[in-house]
Fold this protein.
Amino acid sequence: MREKTQHGPQFSFTITVPSDKQPLIFSTECESECLLWIQAVSMSSMQRVEQENMELHVKLQDVQKRLQAEEVTRNEYQTFTEEQVITIKRLRDENFKLKKHIEELKQEKFQKSEAERGSEEHRLHLLVSSVAHRWYNLTRWRKIIDMYVRSEHAESMKKRNRVLWQLMKSEEEYVSQLGTLVMCFFKPLKMAASSSHPPLSHAQLNLIFRNCETLYYIHQIFLQGLQVRMEKWPVLVLGDLFDMLLPLLVVYQDFVRNHASSLEVLTQCKHNQNFYTLLEKHENK
């Protein structure tokens, strides 16, 4: 836009930010300088979008790799479980045959004469046969368990379980800390900011506690999902829970980027005696 002033013509351009009601107007003395500014602002915005898009693409690839690893582990565990089911079925069949054989022996023993049933050699044979079958079944079970305990799959499952329990514990602690932040500080200060003599403004409150309430509700849902899945241990499928968190990375980015500003505003507010007294009151609860 070209305008005439007392010092000659002026060239200006306007930048409109969605979050601001008032547009930003910039003026230059020559048209070429105005065009350079417009070009620089346009390129700067596109570079930031491209950089954020690249970061999200890298994170998406990392999550996909983790999901693929989870799928491989799940398939290995399913294959092992199917093999164990087949083994257990075979052992049950052998046990059934053994019981049937014992019943047949008992029936034969009942049908025999008192002289044959009183034979010490026959009773010893039955005892040895029963002990041998029990020892055979026990040995097979021990070998199966020992092979599994020493297998790579068992070691992988142990590491996976340690990571999952640590994730569960850290998530419970994080939700507890966010709950303390929201319930003991954010909400009381929000009520104080709406009073007739507020110790801080709503804008300062939002800068100090940027997205903390949103993060609290998100992690409450995530923790509830973890608790439900842990009840189905050892069959655990967690990929969809992390898929839920993936679109919410922008909330974390805003939370992290605002950290320095949050500390700066908090330091400024502490110089206000009313704010400092209120903060100290809630800290001592």
About this structure: Residues 13 and 37 are 9 Å apart (CA to CA). Residues 1-8 have pLDDT under 50 and may be disordered. Residues 31-111 form the longest helix (81 residues). The two ends are 59 Å apart (CA to CA).
